[in-house]
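check this:
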Amino acid sequence: MTDATNDIASGERSRALLSFTLATGRFLLMLAVTIFGLLAVTFFIGRIVPVDPVLAVVGDRAPAHVYARVREEMGLDLPLWHQFAIYIGNVFRADFGNSILTSRPVVEDVIRYFPATMELATLGTFLGTLFGVPLGVAAAVKRGKFIDHVVRVIGLVGYSAPIFWLGLLGLLVFYSKLGWVAGPGRLDVTYEYMLTPVTGMVLVDSALAGDWAVFRNAVSHIALPSALLGYYSLAYISRMTRSFMLNELSQEYITTARVKGLSETRIIWFHALRNAAVPLITVIALSYAHLLEGSVLTETVFAWPGLGRYITNSLQNADMNAVLGGTLVIGLVFVAVNTFSDLLYRLFDPRTR
């Protein structure tokens, strides 16, 4: 009897291990295909864009033999499949070429500018989550009431209003007229070179250094653009929170909890929201990824020295190495954040396991 029980337990462990191995293999295969697709799209966009990278290097008055030599050095005379193979090899070595605009390797520029984008997107997502989740819960609980209509209007404006228009309006009102916040940029010129970069994020570096004057100045600069991105994030998060909560509040376990006499506060915040938090994790992660890749207009309006502004300036100057390198990095970050949210989903929801 004992041997039979051991055999059954051993068989179950073997099946569980096999299932885990297959699931992990499918996940890694899907991730590899996604990254390969991202590399392919990035490469072929660079070849389709009507910008000649050779002319960007030698100028439009260069002799024909100079043009031909540089074209050969850049590998553009090779077959397309060969160029793609070289491109993949360079990417895996973190070699995106040199930027025409800065004369530095693109990977160095990405390391320099990406922390500014990450700082802005992180604070924007934090604000959007901090206010978006409670507003979405309130709208679901008071469905059809005044607060529900207010939250839906706030979300509609956040979705509809162009973000660059809100940015210009915010600068006009809060910077130019009221003087509540600092202007464009990350720091005033006075504080520009007082801080030694550690993480590349000014708020973190100034706090680590204990330089609270720089910290206050950085907060004054980041307050308006982060609030703008936070509002954009809030519109999405509050809408999805409302939808998830309405679904949870209609479930039978909520009715059972009310019959048992549990307080409405406990039912809403400790039962319904707890279950709604599982898909909400994915929503917040995707919102964060969208802010990382979609803050180009905000960075342009506020002269924020982030990766989005770097890509925009590079595109305007036909610096395709920088454009493709920055675009690829943002795509990889989006894939990484999406993968991380999927792992969290599996961790917090036993049904997915």
